[in-house]
Amino acid sequence: MRFPRATHLVILARYIDGQITGWVESKIEGWLGLEVNRDKTRVLDLRKEGESLDFLGYTFRYDCDRKGRKFRYLDMFPSKKALAREREHLRERTCARMCFKPPPVLIDELNEHLRGWANYFGRGYPRKAFREINAYVRQRLYCHLTRRSQRPWRPPKGTTFYAQFAQMGLIYL
To answer: Does pTM top 0.85 for this prediction?
Structure first.
């Protein structure tokens, strides 16, 4: 079976020159029968400052050691585009049209979705992205609960919103 083109392909190598790229392109086009899009094809050196690669929802780049040593490590975290898509998805699930859903049902649906998202993006160093998503979910859930009634929703006295959402069953990434 022949495919018209490969949509995503990343080749990792320590050293790349004209011979290697020519050989790879000849194998892809000749042996596999795929078409290489020359406009989108590029060679990156991730060791250079500011270079990064976005692939399958992740951003890959080299970062300095977190303890201040001179070592660098390959950092892998959810890309900005993936975070924007996730926020849009969460916005759709908690929009004004969903006011009819009882909070326990909505929280169960959010938990199911967040577990799947966290399972996929749990590789690498996703801590900062998870914090952003947690804050966004809390904000959207608060807006959703206050929108449902003419009286504003508040947690019981002496309880924070964070603790109340956790008590209601919302998971935090």
So the answer is: no
